[in-house]
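Appendix B, record 7
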Amino acid sequence: MSTNNSNEKKVLSLIAVLSIVVPVAVAILMIIPEEARLDIEGQWVKGLPFFHAVINGSTAILLVLGGLFIKKQMIAQHRLVMGGAFILSAVFLVSYVISKLSNEPVPYGGEGWLRPTYFFVLISHIALSVPVLPLAMLAIYRAYVNQIDRHKKIVKWTYPIWLYVAVTGVVVYIFMAPYYA
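Structure tokens (predicted):
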């Protein structure tokens, strides 16, 4: 077995493990009892939903720039902004975990047509956020090892899903903003 093949198997295994562990961990956070929440003081914890919206909006901007840069064959700029989008998504994930561990859930209080619209956006956002991590990691890996054809194939799915998740993250915040203390 060649070293490259061995390294690829290791990387793909890591991606697979993270693709399972991260969503399971986040799902568990949704059902943890009140007593298990962290007692973190400070206004900064209450401000995390806004911070998440800023991160999601910034990620969306970087993704759009990445799409524009690659269309113009600006490879270095594309790599830079796509790496930035991935880093912001990682920061979001860590911050989201802190938020879920420290803040009580806030119910949506909207009524009328806003209520089903909110839940459609929220459910689609959550459902599509699950595959973003493995798709993004695989796309980055394929680009890193210069498997550009394979990178392009995975990006056809990754890019629109990731962009949708980033944009709807902001939309969910806009829906929820009146209900945050």
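Remarks on this record: The chain has six helices and no strands. The chain has a mean pLDDT of 90.
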